[in-house]
Structures are given as structure tokens and as C-alpha cells.
Structure to design on (452 residues):
């Protein structure tokens, strides 16, 4: 018997006592809804949003123990869920959506590309994009942090992932990605959906957006093949990637689908992390000054990936921003067999929602959870913390492959912006939408003034 599958003597997780309509509303508020669901139903709670024949049984998990039982053993126990299936239907097979079996060789081929060491080869573009931002605002003024951060993330990702400058069409591409990802997430969360073959206007728009992104990826791949001197390290790394066990490489279609998914998975997430971090720093001038001083100590030159180990306090700020505003508020899995989750039986076929937002605001783990305090991530505090208490990049074998890359990019951007500009946030709240990942419900107004 595999550990965790002897569920015979266990009872199902308790049914959430909230009324049906309220639950339906809370489930769609993917971030804050978690707090009320946990408050009423506890750390592992069963939710019935529709009859079983319409929507699978649904369990939400919030405690570190329950989350570990779901994500920490996920290969044998759980599979991709309806959200991943919708993305797969729209954007093809990629690392993000492949079921566990075909995913393994793809992961083996791609993992070496994204090691802490290797991301330095394609991850330094954020500094240049952030410099363009600081130069544009070198005399100060009123900015919309949401718009600026999305733009600079898109420019940087375009360069890093696709190897192209997206300067002029950054906004159009960001719009394409928004259309594609909100369409898929919206469908996934509906108890009743139009059949996939029905070409609704929303579906046609999403498909066109995906096609135009795939075309950019395909053009770049061709250009790299035609000109070996072309600078696109990630595209080249994918061209050369092979599964170490089978020595099999990736097809052109695989490469383009993965490039697309890196853009989709990397853009909104990184932009939100950066926007939130700058906004929260805009309310904590003393913390901001410390970040500025740390970056200034490295000299008056463009910051590089090799500088990140010296930006320790900036990294703490970034982690605390991801705790308070995790761009992935939750992740979903489908149980493929009956499993034990924190002492309860979760039946095969159950959709399991892992509540990262609620975990990050659990007062039993994070005293005074709503307070911004980068010291929570001091080296000694990090060392003392359980691995399952903090999961902005999820956990287990299907956690984020872009984690090192995202950390590198965002730390460099934060340091670059704050070294040159003092940011004062105008609004006391950070409004968000959670169409799929969490994004700022812009504008996020701030006043910037040059530091020197
Ligand atoms: C702050 C930024 C980011 C956050 C918070 C984040 C978070 C996450 C989370 C929570 C997952 C698990 C999703 C799930 O299980 O459904 C994930 C998966 C993934 N992320 Fe990220 N991500 C970030 C940036 C990036 C970047 C920059 C890239 C690529 C360049 C990326 C590529 C991916 C891919 C491909 C997966 C699927 C991995 C697999 O199934 O093997 N992410 N990310």
C-alpha cells in the first residue's frame, strides 16, 4: 500500500456550512474568498458548487499539512485540473499543462535551462528595461505603477524569452495575453460552459491572441536557425534541450508552445509582484531607503545578475511582497485516487484547490499577517520556517520552473527603480482582479521623485 492511500477508516472532509450562493461568490473571488471559506469550514473543507454530474466534487485546503499532502506527493496522487485542461485546449501542449506522464521527459529537458546559474544567461534584461523606466521619469512626476511595471516586464520578458524587443507592441501583446488567460480561467471556473467546438466571439478572440503570440515564437525560432549569431539564449537553450534519459529533443511545436507558456506564466505574475512591491515600498519610506542604499552601494552602473546575492534586503522585500500579494493566489489539482489529506479522505475525481493566499495570511504562521515586514524573511527566520508555510511558486514536482528567473528579474528591477527614484504611493489600498493570476486593478498611482 502506497503511503497516504489507506483511507478506509477516514471520513470525508467536513462540508462547508456557508450557504450555496455565498460559496459560489467566494469561490470566484480567488484570493480573499479563501479567508471566508477557511473561516467557516476550517483548513480542509468540502464545497458543493453544483451537482456532481455538472462539476466535480471540490475540496479546498489551507493548512501547511494539508497542502503538503496534496502537492508534496502530487505525481502519484494528483493530476492537472480543469484550469490546466482549458489552457491546454487553447494554447496546446506545454510544460504547464501536460499530464504527469508526458510532462516528465519535457521537465527533464527543460529543468537544466532554468537553474539558478543558467537563468543568468538570459535573465539580465530587466535591469535595462527598469533603467528605461527610471530615465523616462528622471525629473519625477505622477506615474501609474501598474502600467509601467507591465510594460517593463513585457519588454524584459520579450527579450529574455523570445529574444526580441517588444518595445512598440508591448501593450498589444500584453492585451493578447490578458484576453487568452482570462478567457481560459473564466471558463474553468464556470459550472456551466459552452462546448469547446462552439466558436463564441470570446473564444475566437482568445484563439487569435494565442495564434499571434505563437507566430512571434515561430518567427524567432526560424530566425535563430537561419542566423547562428542571433542573440536569443532561451530559444537556443530550448533548441538544444534534450531529455537526459532518452536523449530526445523538443519538436518545433513543443518549443513554440513552451515559449508561449513562459510568456503567459511569466508576465502577469512578475508584473504583479513588481507593482505590489513598489506600491508597498511607496508606503514604507524607511524600508525603501534601505533598499535604495543597498543598491547604491554596488556603484553607479547597470545592475547585473551577479549582483543579486548582494541585494539581500531587496530580496527580503520581494519575498514579503509575494507573501502579501501572491500572484498565484491558489493552484488546482485533480485527485486521481482516494488519498489522505490531513487526516481526511479525499476521493478520486475530486478537484482540490490549494489556497496559497490564505496560507500566507494565516495568523497561526504569520503573526499580524496583514502587516508588511520584510524581516520575516531575514536569513534566521527563513531557516526556522517550515517549507510548506510559504508557497508563492507552489511546491512539489510541479512547482514553478521560472522561480529563479522571476526572483532574479524582480530583484534587479526593484533595486534599479528604487536606487534612482523615490516612490510615494497615492492610494492606501492595492485593488486587484483575479481573472486567473492576481493582477492589479489599475491604475496604481504614485508620485516619483529623483533621488539624486
Ligand atoms: C513572480 C513570478 C511567478 C510566480 C509567483 C509564479 C508562480 C507559479 C506557480 C504557483 C506555479 C504552479 C502552477 C500550478 O501548479 O498550476 C507555476 C508554474 C509554472 N510557472 Fe511560474 N510563476 C512566476 C513566474 C514565472 C516565470 C517568469 C516563468 C517562465 C519564464 C514561469 C513559468 C512557469 C511554468 C512553465 C510553470 C509550470 C511548471 C510545471 O508544471 O512543470 N513562471 N508558477
Amino acid at each position: 500500500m502506497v503511503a497516504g492511500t489507506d483511507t478506509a477508516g477516514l471520513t470525508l472532509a467536513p462540508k462547508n456550512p456557508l450557504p450555496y450562493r455565498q460559496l459560489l461568490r467566494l469561490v470566484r473571488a480567488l484570493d480573499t474568498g479563501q479567508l471566508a471559506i477557511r473561516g467557516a469550514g476550517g483548513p480542509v473543507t468540502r464545497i458543493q458548487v453544483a451537482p456532481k454530474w455538472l462539476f466535480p466534487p471540490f475540496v479546498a485546503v489551507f493548512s501547511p499539512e494539508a497542502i503538503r499532502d496534496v502537492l508534496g506527493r502530487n505525481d502519484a496522487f494528483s493530476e492537472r485540473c480543469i484550469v490546466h485542461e482549458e489552457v491546454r485546449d487553447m494554447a496546446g501542449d506545454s510544460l504547464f499543462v501536460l499530464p504527469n506522464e508526458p510532462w516528465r521527459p519535457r521537465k527533464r529537458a527543460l529543468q537544466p535551462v532554468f537553474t539558478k546559474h543558467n537563468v543568468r544567461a538570459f535573465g539580465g534584461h530587466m535591469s535595462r528595461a527598469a533603467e528605461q523606466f527610471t530615465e523616462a521619469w528622471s525629473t519625477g512626476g505622477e506615474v501609474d505603477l501598474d502600467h509601467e511595471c507591465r510594460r517593463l516586464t513585457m519588454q524584459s520578458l520579450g527579450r529574455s524569452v523570445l529574444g526580441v524587443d517588444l518595445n512598440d507592441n508591448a501593450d498589444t501583446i500584453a492585451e493578447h495575453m490578458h484576453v487568452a488567460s482570462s478567457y481560459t480561467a473564466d471558463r474553468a471556473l464556470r459550472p456551466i460552459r459552452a462546448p469547446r467546438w462552439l466558436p463564441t466571439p470570446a473564444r475566437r478572440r482568445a484563439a487569435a491572441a494565442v495564434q499571434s503570440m505563437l507566430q512571434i515564437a515561430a518567427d524567432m525560432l526560424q530566425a535563430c536557425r537561419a542566423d547562428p549569431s542571433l542573440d536569443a539564449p532561451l530559444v537556443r537553450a530550448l533548441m538544444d534541450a534534450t531529455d537526459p534519459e532518452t536523449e530526445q529533443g523538443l519538436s518545433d511545436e513543443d518549443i513554440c508552445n513552451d515559449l508561449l507558456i513562459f510568456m503567459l506564466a511569466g508576465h502577469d505574475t512578475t508584473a504583479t509582484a513588481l507593482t505590489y512591491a513598489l506600491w508597498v515600498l511607496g508606503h514604507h519610506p524607511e524600508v525603501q531607503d534601505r533598499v535604495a542604499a543597498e543598491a547604491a552601494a554596488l556603484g553607479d552602473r547597470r545592475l547585473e545578475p551577479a549582483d543579486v546575492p548582494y541585494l539581500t534586503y531587496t530580496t527580503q522585500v520581494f519575498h514579503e511582497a509575494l507573501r502579501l500579494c501572491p500572484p498565484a493566489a491558489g493552484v488546482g489539482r485533480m485527485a486521481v485516487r482516494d488519498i489522505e489529506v490531513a487526516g481526511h479522505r479525499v476521493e478520486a475525481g475530486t478537484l482540490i484547490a490549494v489556497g496559497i493566499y490564505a496560507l500566507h495570511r494565516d495568523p497561526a504562521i504569520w503573526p499580524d499577517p496583514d502587516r508588511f515586514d520584510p524581516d520575516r524573511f531575514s536569513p534566521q527566520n527563513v531557516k526556522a520556517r517550515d517549507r510548506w508555510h510559504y508557497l508563492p511558486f507552489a511546491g512539489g514536482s510541479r512547482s514553478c520552473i521560472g522561480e529563479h528567473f522571476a526572483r532574479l528579474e524582480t530583484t534587479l528591477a526593484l533595486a534599479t527603480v528604487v536606487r534612482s527614484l523615490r516612490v510615494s504611493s497615492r492610494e492606501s489600498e492595492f485593488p486587484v482582479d483575479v481573472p486567473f493570476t492576481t493582477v492589479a486593478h489599475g491604475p496604481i498611482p504614485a508620485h516619483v521623485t529623483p533621488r539624486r
Q: What stands out?
A: The longest strand covers residues 330-335. The chain is about 50% helix and 10% strand. The chain has a mean pLDDT of 90. The pocket of protoporphyrin IX containing FE is lined by residues 95-96, 107, 161, 261-262, 265-266, 269-270, 273, 327-328, 331, 392-394, 398-402, 405-406 (CB under 6 Å).
